[in-house]
Amino acid sequence: MIIGALCLGALALTPASAQRDPLAPLPDQPVRPALLPRPTPAAPVTVRYAPTPLPAVAQVPAVGFDAYRQTLAAKARAAGVREATIQAVVPYLTLNSRVVELDRAQPGQVSNPNAIPPFGPYRRKHVTDDLITRGAARYGANYPFLTNIERRFGVEPLVLMAIYGHETSYGRVTGTFDLPQVLATLAYEGRRRSFFEEEFVASLQLLDQGVPRSRLRGSWAGATGYPQFMPSVVLRLRTDGDGNGTADIWNSEADALASIAAYLREAGWKPNVHWGVPVRVAPAFNRAAVRSAVVAPRCPAVYARHSRWLTVREWRSLGVAAIGRTLPENELATLIEPDGQGATAYLLSTNYRAILDYNCSNFYALSVGVLGDSIVGG
Ligand SMILES: [Ca+2]
C-alpha cells in the first residue's frame, strides 16, 4: 500500500527541477567534448586527419519555428494567458542552440548495471567543506525560523538547507538563461514537448501574475530561483516564508526554504522521520532475498537500485547496522549500496522518495541527505 501510494504521489508531481533530466537515472556524469585526434610529438608532420564531423547537436531546423510560435501562442491563449503577455513574448522568441546542445548531451539510460559509477566521486564534488560550512552558518543563524518552518510543514530543516545548497550554492548560482526562450526551445526540439509546452505557458502565467520578465531567469532546462523550481511548481507552491506578503523565491531565502518545504510536504514527507541513515551490511548478507520485484512507473532505473521494504527492526535482524543516527524501529526502509558491497550503504525512509520527487536521481537525493547531516554535525 505504501509503495502504491508513493507511486501515485510521484506521478501527480512535476519534478521541482529539470536541471538534471529526471529521465536520466544517474546525474552529473561529466559531459566531455569528443577528443580530437592529435599527432604525437614523434609523428611525422605529413600525417593528416579527416575533419571531425560536427555532432548533430544545435542543428534543429529553425524554419519551422515561426509556425511553432503560433502553436505556443494558441496554447497560452487556451490556458487563459493575457493577450498582451503573449504579444510581448511570443513574437520575439528565438531558438537557443546552446540549450539544444546541452539537452542532447544528457546521459541516457544505463542498460548495463555494471556500468553504474560509484557514488563516492559525486559525493566529494557535491558535499564539500565549503557547502557544509556555509550551510551550517545559515542553519545556526536562522534556527528559530527553520523551527517555525518545521512546525508549519513537518519537513526536517536540514534537508531544506541541503537542497538550497545543492541546487544553487545557497543562492549564488541560479542561472542566467531566459526562461520563456529555453522552454520554447526545449518544447520545439520535441524530446519532451508536452512537458515543456506546459512549462512555457506557466512562465507566461508568472508574467501575468506580475513577475518581471527580468526575473524569469534560470538554468538551461528551465528551473528558476533559489530552489530551482520549474515555472509550474513556482505557480503552485511558492510560499511566503518571511511573512511580508509576497512569495519571492528569487530574492528571499526564507521564501525559498518555505517553498522547498511546501514541495516536500506535497511529495508526501512524513514528519519526524529522518530521510535515511548510513549502515554497515554484514559480509554474508543475502541480497537476493531482499531484491524488489516492483518496477516503478517513474524513473524505474533509479528505484531499481533500492531493495524491497522492510522495517528497521527487520533490517537489524538481518545484520544491517546503523552507523550513528537511527530510524524508528517500526519505520519501513529500503537498502541502497551506492558504492557496492563492503562500502557504506544507506537505509532509506519513505521521505527519501520525497527528495527523489524533487530530482529523480539517487546520487542527488543521497548527497542532499548527507549534506544535510553534515550541516547539523552528522
Ligand atoms: Ca516573503
Give the topology, please:
Blueprint: H1 2-12, H2 65-78, H3 83-89, H4 97-104, H5 119-126, H6 129-141, H7 143-153, H8 157-168, E1 177-178, H9 179-189, H10 193-208, E2 217-218, H11 231-237, H12 253-266, E3 276-281, H13 300-303, E4 310-311, H14 312-317, E5 320-322, E6 332-336, E7 345-348, H15 350-358, H16 362-375
Antiparallel strand pairs: 1-2, 3-5, 3-7, 4-6, 6-7
Helix pairs in contact: 4-9, 5-16, 6-8, 6-16, 7-12, 8-12, 8-16, 9-10, 10-11, 12-15, 15-16
Bound molecules: calcium ion.
Calcium ion (CA) binds at residues 240-242, 244, 246-248, 252, 255.
Structure in words:
The chain has 378 residues and is α+β, with helices and mostly antiparallel strands. The chain has a domain at 58-126 and 177-224: Orthogonal Bundle (Helicase, Ruva Protein, domain 3), CATH 1.10.8.350. The protein is 44% helix and 6% strand. It has helices spanning 2-12, 65-78, 83-89, 97-104, 119-126, 129-141, 143-153, 157-168, 179-189, 193-208, 231-237, 253-266, 300-303, 312-317, 350-358, 362-375; strands spanning 177-178, 217-218, 276-281, 310-311, 320-322, 332-336, 345-348. The chain has a 5-stranded antiparallel sheet with strand order 4-6-7-3-5. Strands 1-2 form a two-stranded antiparallel ribbon. A hairpin with an 8-residue loop joins strand 6 (332-336) and strand 7. The radius of gyration is 23 Å and the shape is globular. It starts with a helix and ends with a helix. Bound molecules: calcium ion. Calcium ion (CA) is lined by residues 240-242, 244, 246-248, 252, 255.
